[in-house]
Amino acid sequence: MKARGWLLLLLAALLALPWLLPGYALEVAIQALILALFATAFNFVFAETGLLSFGHAAFFGGGAYTTALLMQRAGWPYLLTLPAAVLAAALLALAIGFFSVRTSRIYFTMLTLAFAQLVWAVVHKWYDFTGGDNGITGLHPGALWGDARALYYLALVLFALGLTFVWRLHHAPFGYALRAIRDNPARAEAVGLSPFGYLLAAFTLSGALAGAAGFLQVAWQRSAFPDFLYWTKSAEAIIAAILGGAQALFGPALGSVVFVELGAFVQSRTEYWPLVLGLVLLALVLFLPQGLAGLGGGRARG
Amino acid sequence: MLEVSHVSKSFFGFAALSGVSLRVAPGSFHALVGPNGAGKTTLFNVIVGRYRPDAGEVVLAGRRITGLPTARVVRLGLGISFQRAQAFLSMSVLENVVLAVLAQQGRTHDGVRELAGYEDARAAARELLGWVGLAAAADAPTASLPLGDLKRVDIAMALAGRPQMLLLDEPLAGLSRAERREMVRFIEELLRGLGLTLLFTEHDTEAVLRLADRVTVLHQGQVLSEGTPDAIKRDARVVEAFLGE
Ligand SMILES: Nc1ncnc2c1ncn2[C@@H]1O[C@H](COP(=O)(O)OP(=O)(O)OP(=O)(O)O)[C@@H](O)[C@H]1O
Ligand SMILES: [Mg+2]
Asked: Given phi > 0 = left and psi -120 to 50 = alpha, else beta, which region is A187?
């Protein structure tokens, strides 16, 4: 009951935010929401299966480029590109996952990184189709989604849907099957679970969610750039998840807010953001291995 | 019930099994014994499809299962429990068994309904926990259990698909004397009562003599002898193989 009260309060605050924040701060808040969705997507696979993907930028960027290309070349209205972006990201995740989820831990991480960098290289060089390193710019998401408040609410809705999705999977037999495979793959097989199908399904769903985050990013920047697919984008999701706490449902979102807000604050004052980030991460690993969610007392996977 | 014929398996040129044949009659308790490194666990791994044999066949209830993936073999009615007790340590005891029940029924694809709401699977899991004497520990975190109880969870999960046959790899390993005695009685009562066929390995001679109807002795990857426990006890080659180690 108490938890529900806090949740309602948080929801009210999130709904009121666009009317309280000045323009620039709202832009930062939207960015935080987009990263929150992206990090939650990444963390679904990381927390439930123990596999650390270093290639989620491919799905974020895959979704973003699908949206940008459909708007630029086919004249699709922004919102209609959402299903296509999600589907394209899911298919990309299916393909990359097919070759990666069979391998164990460190090989999985390296393989997903390699595949994502491959996708980045293609987008980066294919000037005729993707605009190469110039990206795709000057997109107009329409009068409504060009408005920061509307975009904020769209991001909030998608983030809430993504979070609900992950929460449901966690408590359903599918989530238990994933954690069984993570806890003890040999035992999981001996109760009749074949790991490959479950891991591939989880990776694909996670990629689909990351694609939705990429879709939002296009409206926020009115562009798509190869940076969306670069390994540093994958690292943002990883950092946000670990910063907030990978074992908590809200952990990655919390980490995203801190990452984006702190980043904006520090960058407006100094040019030493990477240094500050490094120190924050160091302190965290040393003193708060459970992430910021660990401050709230343990494993809140409600 | 289970027929293993002429199975061979080498690791990097080392023959862990060479031409092993074995027949387990329906309803019998069959022990597989032998010194450390004889190939007992390797043979189990071949049977359950974790290793593909270099040669030979495995037939379960008239069906060829050689090389089938473990998850398939299990669903064909073979329950498996491991040498080292294993469970899903992030879950409660009941959740472990509920998941095993749902997995056996092919109902783990569901990503919407809460596991906690599957009343039929929970009832089945509670019954299994009752069989292994763990009904009271249903809500305990698995990670907190002593080894003896962990083995019981493991056996409850192995029984989740109501198999016709069970494989137990060293069910007594790591247990105290008292726990051993209890486990032997438990295996006798429960599995005989269920009419299960059992193939097990064990180093505890006393337990083997008490439980087994037939004994197969494995030595350096080959079948050295097979017979009733009494006959095996008197077999000079067997005595030599064990003392010669
Ligand atoms: N995956 C593997 N790779 C290489 N060698 C292996 C492998 N599995 C088993 N072996 C070897 O095969 C031989 C038989 O091992 P196995 O585990 O089957 O013996 P065991 O009869 O179960 O012994 P124990 O009583 O100690 O459990 C050993 O020499 C072992 O080192
Ligand atoms: Mg062994």
From this structure: alpha
Strand extents, DSSP E, chain A: none
Q: Looking at the whole model, is its pTM more than 0.95?
A: no
- Residues of A engaging B, defined by a Cβ cutoff of 8 Å: 168-169, 171-177, 179-180, 182-184, 186-194, 198
Last residue of a domain, one of B147, B162, B177: B162
Query: Could you tell me if B141 lies within 8 Å of chain A, comparing CB atoms?
Result: no
Helical pair B93-104 and B119-131, crossing angle rounded to 10 deg: 110
The residue whose two tokens read 């292994």 is B132
**Residue B184: which domain range?**
1-77+165-245
Contact A82, A212 (CB under 8 A): yes
Domain final position from B135, B162, B189: B162
Assess: ipTM above 0.95: no
Q: What's residue A274's pLDDT?
A: 87
DSSP-based three-state secondary structure for B210: helix
Contact residues, B window 152-191, toward A, CB-based 8 Å cutoff: 154, 157-158, 160-161
Separation between Cα atoms, residue A66 and residue A68, nearest integer Å: 6
pLDDT confidence of residue B190? 86
Count: domains in chain A: 1
* A84-110: average pLDDT: 94
In a domain, A284, yes or no: no
Task: Supply angle C-alpha A265, A270, A275, rounded to 5.
Answer: 90
- The CATH number assigned to the domain holding B35 equals 3.40.50.300
Q: What is the pLDDT of residue B14?
A: 92
